[in-house]
Amino acid sequence: MARQSGGISHDYKHVYTDSARAGRGYRWPWFAAGLLLPVVGVLAISGRPDAASPAGPDLEVTEAPVVVLAMAAETSTRSVPMARAPEALPATESLPPPDAPDRAADGVESIAADVTAPPRDAPPADVTSTPAAAPLQVALRAAPNPLVLAPPPDDDAVQAAMNREAAPAGPMPGHDLHEAGAVQTVALRVARGDTLERMFRRHELSVSDMFTLLRDDQARRHLSILRPGDIITVEHVQGRVLTLSRELDEIRVLEVARAEQGYRSAITEQAVETRVVTAQAIIQSSLFNAGRAAGMPDSVTMNVAGLFQWDVDFALDIRQGDQFSVVYQELWRDGQRLRTGNILAAEFVNRGRTYRAVRFDMGDRADYFTPEGRSIRRAFIRAPVDFTRISSRFNLNRRHPVLHTIRAHRGVDYAAPTGTPIKAAGDGRVIFRGVQGGYGNTVIVQHGGNITTLYAHMSRFHPEVRHGNRVRQGQVIGYVGMTGLATGPHLHYEYRVNGVHRDPLTVELPPAEPVPAAYRERFARETAPLLAFLDRAQDASEAQLAMSGR
User: Fold this and answer.
1) Contacts of 311 (CB under 8 A, 6+ apart)
2) Contacts of residue 32, Cβ cutoff 8 Å, sequence gap at least 6
3) CA-based torsion, 500, 501, 504, 506: positive or negative
C-alpha cells in the first residue's frame, strides 16, 4: 500500500522494485550470451594451432560459428541459460563432402538440436560449460592445408629483388643491339662536388647497375675518386649500362663491360706516339719569354733551369744574350699532343760559359750527366727555396735589424711569401727539429763529409720530417715564415763544414756520383747523337747572333 506524507502518495519504491525485477529477467539472456561467445572463441582457437588455415574442401570453417550464433540467438529469445553441452563428435568421423548439401544441412540441424534449451522449470545451467566447442574444433581440424610460416629471405635475395625493381624495363643489352641502333653513348663530365651516383641519376642511368659494377674491385678503386673535368663514357640501352670507360692517364684506360654475372673490368693501353722535338732560344728580356718565343712550353723552360741550377743562379746570373738549346720528347695520340716528356739533352750558355747535360738510363734509374760522364747534380742545392729576392747576404759585420747591434750574419736570407715550401739542400738525417732561440722554428740536417745545413724562421714543419728521419735532396721539410727574431717572412739558410760557417752562395759544392764504369761504353754510344745535335744548335745560334750584329 502506498505511503502518504502530507496528502502526497509515495509509491515510487514499489514501482522501482517491479521495474528492476522485470529488467533482470529481460537482461539475463544477453548477459549469458556475452559470456558464452568469448569462451567459445578462446576454446576454438586454443584447440588447434592451425585454426587460421584455409578451410578444406569437405567443410567450410564458417559453418560452426554460424551454428553457435544461431544457438545464442535462440537462447536469448527464450531468456534462459543453456542446459547442457553437446557431446563432441568423434575425431575419426569424416565430415560430409561439399557435393552432399542435404547431409550437410542435416548435420547442422543435428547440432542445433543438441543445443536446444531445457524447459523453463529446469535448473540453471553451469555458465562454465562450452556448448558447440567440440564440433567447432572438429571443423577446424578438418582443414587439410595448415598455415606454415616461411623463413625470411636472405640478403642476396632481397638485393636481387631490389635490383629487379629498380632496373628499367626493356631488353637486356646484347651484341645485336649495336646493329639495331638501340645502344646510346653518353659522356659524363665530372663537375665540382659530383659523385658517380649523382651523374647516373642526372642522365637517367640505372643506379642498380652502378652498384653492381662497383662490386668489381678494380672498377671501384678507379671510380671512387673523381676529379673535376674527368670524362666517363657510358654505353647504355634504355638506361641499363652496357659498358663504361675512363681514361686513367695518357696511356691507360679503365674498361668495364657487362658479363653474364655482373660486370668485368680491365686496364687497356692506348697507342701513344713519342716525338723528339728540338728548340733554341736567345734571352732578350727573361728566360721564360725566350722559351715562349722559341715555341717551348713553360714546363720545358723550367726543367732546363732545374738541370743547371747547381751551376747557374737563374735569379742573379742571367744576362741578355745568354742562350740555350734543348732536345725533348712530346707524347701524341690521334693527332693531338698530350704532354711533354723527358728532356734528352740541353745546353745553356751563361756569360760565355757553356754547360751541357744529357740523359742516360741505367735501367734501375735515369740521371743527367756531362759529356764526360760526371753528374750535373751536386750533393747540395745552391738555393733550397723558390725565393723572390735575397734580403740579406753572408756578412760577418752586419747590423741586426731587430737588435740594432753588430752581429755576424752567417747565412743567406731568402725572402719569400709565407707558406713557400723549403727543400732539403742534400741527402742527410734530421738532427734537430724544434724552436731554437731567435731562429724560431728550425731544422738542422746532417750530411756526409761533416757538413750540416740549417733552415730557420719556418712557419711550420712538414709532418713527415722528424728528429732522426732521413731526407733526400729536394724533399720538402718545412714552409717559409717569420718565427723568432724576424721582420718579415723569409728563410735563413746556413751551410757549415766541420762546424764552420761558409757562404752558401760561393762555397764549392761537392759533386754527385759519376756514370758507373760498367756503363761508360754504352753511355758514349747512346749520347753521341744528342751531343751532335747540340753542336749543330750551337753553330746555328752563333750564326744567328752574327747576323744580328751582336
Assistant:
1) 350, 355, 376
2) 75, 76, 81, 82, 127
3) negative
pLDDT attached to residue 436: 92
Q: In what order do the strands lie in the sheet with 240-247?
A: 184-189, 231-237, 240-247, 252-258, 263-269
DSSP string, 377-418: -BSS-S-SB--SEEEE--BTTPBPTTT-SB--B-SEEEE--T
Handedness of CA 381, 387, 393, 394 (dihedral sign): negative
Q: Which three cell numbers stand for residue 101?
A: 548439401
Query: For residues 160 and 212, is the Cβ–Cβ distance under 8 A?
Result: no
Lowest mean pLDDT segment, chosen from 49-53, 106-110, 261-265, 346-350 = 106-110
Cβ atoms of residues 122 and 83 within 8 Å: yes
Q: Is the dihedral of CA 466, 468, 470, 473 positive or negative?
A: positive
Polymer length of the chain: 550
The 10s digit of each residue's pLDDT in 291-350 is: 999 999 999 999 999 899 888 878 778 899 899 999 999 989 888 888 899 999 999 999
Q: Do residues 56 and 144 make contact, with C-beta atoms less than 8 angstroms apart? A: yes
* Number of alpha helices (DSSP H) and beta strands (DSSP E) in the chain: 12, 22
Cα 431 from Cα 452, distance rounded (Å): 9
pLDDT in tens, 261-292: 889 999 998 888 889 888 989 999 889 999 99
Please work out, in degrees rounded to the nearest 5, the angle formed at the alpha carbon of residue 476 by the alpha carbons of 360 and 416: 110
Rounded to whole angstroms, the Cα distance separating 505 from 315 reads 12
CA–CA separation, 336 and 443 (whole Å): 46
CB 407 within 8 A of CB 398: yes
Q: Are 423 and 475 in contact (CB under 8 A)?
A: yes
Q: Is the pTM of this model over 0.90?
A: no
pLDDT at 371 over 90: yes
Structural domains of the chain ordered from first start: 16-141 (no CATH), 182-269 (3.10.450.350), 274-377+520-550 (3.10.450.350), 389-502 (2.70.70.10)
Q: What's the rounded Cα separation, in Å, for the pair 403 and 366?
A: 49
Kindly tell me if the per-residue pLDDT of 440 is higher than 90.
yes
Q: Distance between CA 438 and CA 456 in Å, rounded?
A: 9
* CA pair distance 219, 234, nearest whole angstrom: 14
